[in-house]
UniProtKB/TrEMBL annotation:
Compartments where located: Membrane
GO molecular function: high-affinity sulfate:proton symporter activity
Coiled coil: none
Spans traversing the lipid bilayer: 14-41, 148-171
Protein's UniProt name: Sulfate transporter CysZ
């Protein structure tokens, strides 16, 4: 039969625990992979939306040295930077989630991390339109951690509601651009 035939009966619970953890990890990876792909395809449109929102808020368009031919490669590069930022933190959260005792703080950490990532994702469009690097954006957000988490929390929670999550991206881009203009630009 199966590999479980090699182990004592009392280890069957461990089998289901490992499968559960693996399932959660794979689902998180699938979610982030599809989000990554969606963000790459929508990035040029989101950048344009962000420019228009910033122009509306400040009465002037952001000044960028990026040409139309650089938009897609730059967007892909920024999305890869975000992915490289997320993966080690995601792995650490999964490990915290599976360690007994420590995992009691796991739900709060997931909530805070999700809120932080929503702010990072949506404020990045305003930063990118103003030629601010991803690293500089992270530094600015770290100086305003509390405001960043407060901005990202509703977006993260709305992401879990079917239907609402489909219209969240343009609303998030507009809100992230406003957050950029009001909290991070200067």
């Amino acid at each position: 039969g199966s590999i479980m035939g090699w182990f004592p009966d009392w280890m069957s619970a461990l089998y289901w625990l490992v499968w559960g953890i693996a399932f959660i990890f794979v689902m998180a990876l699938v979610f982030f992979f599809f989000s990554f792909i969606a963000n790459i395809f929508s990035s040029p449109f989101n950048s344009l939306l962000s420019v228009k929102v910033e122009e509306h808020l400040t009465s002037s368009a952001p000044v960028s040295q990026v040409t139309i031919w650089q938009v897609v490669p730059r967007a892909v590069g920024r999305e890869i930077s975000k992915l490289l930022y997320v993966l080690p933190r995601l792995t650490l959260l999964v490990l915290i989630t599976i360690v007994p005792g420590v995992n009691i703080v796991s739900p709060l950490l997931w909530l805070m991390f999700g809120a932080w990532m929503m702010t990072l994702q949506y404020a990045d469009y305003g930063a990118d339109n103003n030629d601010v690097s991803f690293r500089a954006l992270k530094e600015r957000l770290q100086r305003r951690r509390f405001q960043a988490v407060l901005f990202g929390m509703p977006a993260y929670l709305l992401l879990t509601i079917p239907g609402v999550n489909l219209v969240l991206m343009p609303i998030g881009v507009a809100g992230g651009t406003r957050f950029w203009v009001e909290q991070l630009k200067h």
